[in-house]
Amino acid sequence: MGHHDLRNKYGPRDLRVRLEAEGLPRTTLSFYRYVRLQEVGTLRNELYQEWEALGVLGRIYIAPEGINAQVSVPTGQLDAFRAALDAREAFANVPWKTAVEDDGQSFLKLAIKVKSKVVADGLADDAFDVTNVGTHLDAASFNRKMEEGALVVDMRNNYECLIGHFEGAYLPKADTFRGAIEEVVVALRRVQRDNDQDILLYCTGGIRCEKASAYLKHEGFMNVGQLHGGIIDYARQIKAQGLPSKYMGQNFVFDERLAERITDDVVSACMQCGTKSDRITNCHEATCNMLLVQCEACAAKYADCCSPSCMEIHQLPIEAQRAWRKGRSTRSTKTKAINDPESLRQRIREEEEMLALNGTLHPSVALARGEDAPELTNVNRQPATRA
Questions:
Q1: Are residues 107 and 70 in contact, defined by beta-carbon separation less than 8 angstroms?
Q2: Which domain holds residue 7?
Q3: Residues catalogued as catalytic
Q4: What is the average pLDDT across 171-184?
């Protein structure tokens, strides 16, 4: 089999049909390990062949520094997958976390990518000791230290914090891991009472806290702890041990589900109308694709789009959409989510007024239909603060 065969060749629609036709129960797992790997290109191809034969789907990054994986495995193949991992010394006995909620649709394809790092942190690893990590804490210890007055820090990006977080945690405004680390250092120096006050870090599955805790210790912070296994394993532990959950709401995940519920708390609001909601989604207009919190009513009103201008394009026949998109870049390649709901609502109000007055927000679309189109100004203005 040539290397060109070791990748997916199907589109999303075909992949979804294939997955639904499969009819097998699946289990979604995540795992990571910092370990020195050699010949990662060759390793990537070997893993692809092994895991494809087992029916594994998912997104996996491998780098000279280790592996970071989120996978969906046919439940009947879990033992075989475990054996395949353990057969490789670098991955033997690697702990994995099982998804809290799983509909079997978390991934549509198998994608294994070679990266320079398993998490894009932008940090120069030779500038500090990446092995000098914070103390690993289980759920009970994490809860206890919170009750004793520790500073709690969310090490995820701003859009991940939107729909769920620990009580009283510092939530970064940054939309990158590197930005979040730098922001957290400044914030902790401002609010830490003394150098002995505990600092507790958490993230989705634990991998970002490994690097972040080492960086904070390098920056002079003493008592740094991290939630071992992240939010995913915290949810498992509190359920198994009957512990109270200090995490509120949903956990953002980077797969087709987008979120898994930890508690019934709703900590966010619809960005379009302001009602309480933690339904997170992507704008369905392909050149937008921005993440936003959108309630069911607004999803119906705006056809699963973030704004009237996106809705107008999304509701065109597919060939007309493709023609309109030609040559346009996707906005979310630069910014992932909308983080200023008021700016979005103002934009929606302006666009609705213009739509009512002129019948279109896109003159080029109207002309393509053979309609007269007035010259409109500021029609495609983006919200000032997308993140």
A1: yes
A2: 3-114
A3: 203
A4: 92
